[in-house]
Each structure stands twice: as C-alpha cells, then as structure tokens.
Amino acid sequence: MRAPIDLQLGWPSTTLHPSGPLLTSASPILTAPEQSAAALNYGPGHGYGPLRASIASWLTASYAPRDADGRPYAIPPNRVMVGNGASGTLLNAVLRLAAPAYTRAVWMVEPTYFLACPIFADAGFGGDGDDEGGPSRMRGVPEDDEGIDVGFLRAAIERVEAEVRAGTGGSTRSGGNPAHFSSMFVHQMLSTGALQNHIDTVLVPTYRRRYHALMSAIKEYLVPLGVVIDVGKKYEASIASSSQLYEGSAGKLATIARDKHKCKFAFGDMFKIEGDPGSAERARRKGGFEMGIRLCWAWLEEEQLVEGVWRMAETIKD
User: Per CATH, which fold does 5-11+197-317 belong to?
Assistant: First the structure.
C-alpha cells in the first residue's frame, strides 16, 4: 500500500530538529536560580535584549549589509523584534497597527501566504459574515520580476480613500513578549555558536541536497509534460519551488493526485486573496498563479521528493 507523500507541508523534518543543542542550552538556564526566574517571568515587549543583540550580530556577520553609500553597516539590536513565529507575529502586528473601525483596506502581495488571509479575517477585515456581513477589506496587489506593481497599488489606494466606513474594533496588548521563555535558550545557542553550527552543518547541506533532488525530478518527469519551472530568479524561495502548468487547473490536478496517488501539494488557488474578486480574476488569467503549484522540500527526504514528483507526473498523464 502506498504511503502518502505531502509536498505541501512546510515543517522541517524531525531529523533537522536541534534537540541536542537546545537541551544543552536550556540546562544552564533552568538550573541557575537567577536565570530560571528571569526565564519564567514576563519578558520585555520587543524581546529578550541579549537575544536581540545576538541576532543583530549574527545577521551582520552573515549578510555583511551596506548602507546607501556602500559602507559596511552593523544591524542595531533595536531593529530586531522577537516573535513566536510568522503567523503569531503577523497577528500581533495587525492587532497593534490596525483596527476595523479605522483601517480601510489590507494590501497583500499576490500570490500570498495561504494562512495569512484567515488571520486578517479573524482581526475583523474579512467579509461574508466575518465583518458584520460587509465585503472583505483584503486586497491583492500583483507583483512582477521588479517587485510590487506600484502604479496598481497607488490607483487602488486612491479608490479606497474615497470610501467611508464605520465599524467596531480594538487592539490587544500582551503582558510581555510571547516567546520570552524560549528566547533565552535560543540566545544561549547563538552565544555559544551552536545554532550557527547547526545551520551550517545540518540545515544548509540537507536543504541543498533536497532542493537539487526535487529540481532534477521536476526536470525529468514534469517538464516533458509541459510544466514550466518558475524559480531560479533572484527571489528564489528557501524551502519550496514553484512551477506552472501549461494548461488546466492546478486545483483539479491536486485533487486527483491526493485521491488517486496519495500525493498532496499546494496549488495556485490557495494563494489568492480571500474576498477580493480582482485577485481571483488575475489568478485565472493565462499564466496566472491559479495554474501554479508549490512543492516544499523541508519535510521530505530526497527519495520521497522524487517519488512525489513521479506521482504528479502520473497524475498529469491520467
């Protein structure tokens, strides 16, 4: 019986978890009364100060940023904020910086992260009953190789500015940084070099092998069937690759692949802006992202990635 293959899941596989370094870093903190007391209490709103400094130093060393004049630039710790993950941090930003009673629209680059729309809807910017039955205030902004379509965004904002809305809303304030406890462990890993070592010796080599295995399989099995690879550009993703079908609906293909071949992957319709008819229309255009598929290499080993792509090819042939 075939084992399911999930090319959609973006979690790192369990073999990539830094369990040992985390345990080593946690022990001196939890066994020292002063350190453990600090870890188990509320932390600063923007995050644990030493961790912010460690992250700033690490980013400066890793990316060697330069200012507008080309001079080396050290990232200051006050530019770093510690969060509890992408989704939780996005929600906190929305609650602090926007309010349904005041904010007229939320602009999202399309295709967008498919779990972002429910966050904005829960915050009061959705439609179809989520916002007292009113229309959604989430709006898509198309993007090309040069970035956001600024002309489109400017014209759309001008239209929204002519509208008047009224509603209810508010914001919440946390009783401290939501990731304070784990922040102290991560700082310990950074200060000892354990995290950098894990990234350099485990994550990067593993992701590199998986990426090449996935891309080779796409070129061997899918490209001859008319699939176009849509990566290799300067903004190439770090844990996933995207491709475009020559014709047909990626959503229908995903359904057949899941039901018949036990292969799951993300498809273009998932990444449109919920409640924005314009986003759906742009997705359906020839070459639009409705025909796109997204394959992630974070969770699966090389042989599973190749098997998953082969099952996709069998689905297209069907």
Answer: Aspartate Aminotransferase, domain 1 (3.90.1150)
